[in-house]
């Protein structure tokens, strides 16, 4: 790493208004550069303390009484807080629970049933595997057709591409707001409006945008959205996902997994299922109360830092990473325009797989994405510019020795 690189990183860190937030996270041990915050965020010190308190008090002392005292409504309260801080969603439209895969199934199936007679679903071929697999499974189950959109490896879905496949048979459009590979930031409001012109519903996967890109789901007229909480929301491995369902759709959609927690009177133990009113009807089984706890701390931290400031640093971090990458002969397979880029970048190189494995051995942790991508995920509240400089310099060194 040259003196100029070190100096520039130091200047950027000194000018960073969010630099102090790095001390809120648990130390990384032997990791010198954590460049995978968009796969699994680092834990907060506050979460360690919250989990201990939860075990000793809320669980240990209150025991089963905790359900009556607070846990029954925890998925809704946490959903409201997340909606308010990170989604641009009014209360009563967001709920925490299940995995992203399960929530995708629920909302896709509910949307298809709400558009009887329509036979087509829209998705892009480079969407995250879970999205494509769940969609394909439902299409096979119901005899529907998937209209696929092909995207450039360093880009993503555009409004023109969506318009080309929409029609009177379109029931649902399923897209990711930020592409998991390239970080392409889709034109969400425009695409949503296009689908609505054809009477279709739209389901947005927010996994790679929530917590790092400001969202205004209510103002943008979004129908449905899902997202995980273990990336930029630092909820921890296996942390529960969230579902957003616009308020006017609650009574028009029937989710397919009729669990007791989504019933109107769960403790009545009735013979037949009657869905709860509002967003609660999208619950199924017992909510993962323990798994929600770290998310609550991150919601507080995002509130304190402010999403506009987080987004501003995210753009600067990725710009800095691209500038470093341009110096050592890799291809930046992500949008150069910050307005079209999420919180990570992908660097393409034939030796990407081997380089990523070698970097992990020396305490530099990026991500490998086939066929040839080193993905650099930069979580703004826990990542310094010096860390990015160190990690990218290590990548340059490893690639210089690649066969």
UniProtKB/TrEMBL annotation:
Record has Hydrolase as a keyword: yes
Record's protein name: Kynureninase
Which InterPro entries does this entry report, sorted A to Z? Kynureninase (IPR010111), PyrdxlP-dep_Trfase (IPR015424), PyrdxlP-dep_Trfase_major (IPR015421), PyrdxlP-dep_Trfase_small (IPR015422)
Q: Which organism is it from?
A: Herbihabitans rhizosphaerae
Q: How is this protein organized at the quaternary level?
A: Homodimer.
Keywords associated with the record: Hydrolase, Pyridine nucleotide biosynthesis, Pyridoxal phosphate
Q: Coiled-coil intervals in this record? A: none
**Regions that span the bilayer:** none
Tell me the cofactors it needs.
pyridoxal 5'-phosphate
């Amino acid at each position: 790493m040259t003196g100029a690189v070190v100096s520039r990183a130091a200047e950027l860190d000194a000018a960073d208004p969010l630099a102090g937030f790095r001390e809120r996270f648990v130390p990384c041990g032997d990791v010198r550069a954590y460049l995978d915050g968009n796969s699994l965020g680092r834990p907060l010190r506050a979460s360690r303390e919250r989990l201990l308190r939860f075990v000793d008090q809320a669980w240990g002392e209150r025991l089963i009484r905790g359900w009556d005292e607070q846990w029954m409504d925890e998925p809704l309260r946490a959903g409201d807080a997340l909606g308010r801080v990170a989604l641009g969603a009014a209360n009563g439209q967001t709920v925490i629970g299940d995995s992203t895969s399960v929530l995708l199934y629920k909302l896709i199936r509910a949307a298809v049933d709400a558009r009887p007679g329509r036979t087509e679903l829209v998705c892009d071929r480079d969407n995250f595997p879970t999205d494509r697999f769940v969609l394909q499974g439902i299409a096979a189950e119901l005899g529907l057709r998937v209209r696929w959109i092909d995207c450039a490896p360093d880009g993503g879905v555009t409004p023109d591409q969506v318009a080309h496949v929409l029609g009177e048979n379109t029931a649902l459009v399923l897209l990711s707001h930020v592409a998991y590979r390239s970080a392409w930031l889709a034109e969400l409001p425009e695409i949503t409006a296009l689908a609505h012109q054809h009477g279709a519903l739209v389901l947005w996967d927010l996994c790679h945008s929530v917590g790092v890109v400001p969202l205004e789901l209510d103002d943008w007229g979004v129908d449905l959205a899902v997202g995980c909480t273990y990336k930029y929301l630092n909820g921890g491995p296996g942390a529960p996902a969230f579902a957003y369902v616009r308020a006017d759709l609650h009574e028009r959609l029937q989710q397919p997994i009729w669990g007791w927690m989504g019933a109107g009177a769960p403790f009545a133990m009735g013979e037949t299922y009657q869905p709860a009113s509002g967003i609660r009807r999208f619950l199924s089984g017992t909510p993962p109360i323990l798994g929600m706890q770290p998310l609550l701390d991150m919601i507080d931290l995002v509130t304190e830092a402010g999403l506009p400031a987080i987004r501003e640093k995210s753009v600067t971090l990725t710009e800095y990473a691209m500038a470093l990458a341009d110096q050592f002969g890799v291809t930046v397979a992500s949008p150069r325009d910050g307005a079209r880029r999420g919180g990570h970048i992908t660097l393409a190189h034939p030796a990407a797989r081997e380089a990523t494995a070698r970097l992990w051995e020396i305490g530099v942790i990026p991500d490998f994405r086939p066929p040839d991508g080193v993905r650099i995920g930069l979580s703004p509240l826990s990542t310094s510019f010096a860390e990015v400089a160190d990690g990218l310099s290590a990548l340059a060194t490893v690639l210089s020795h690649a066969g």
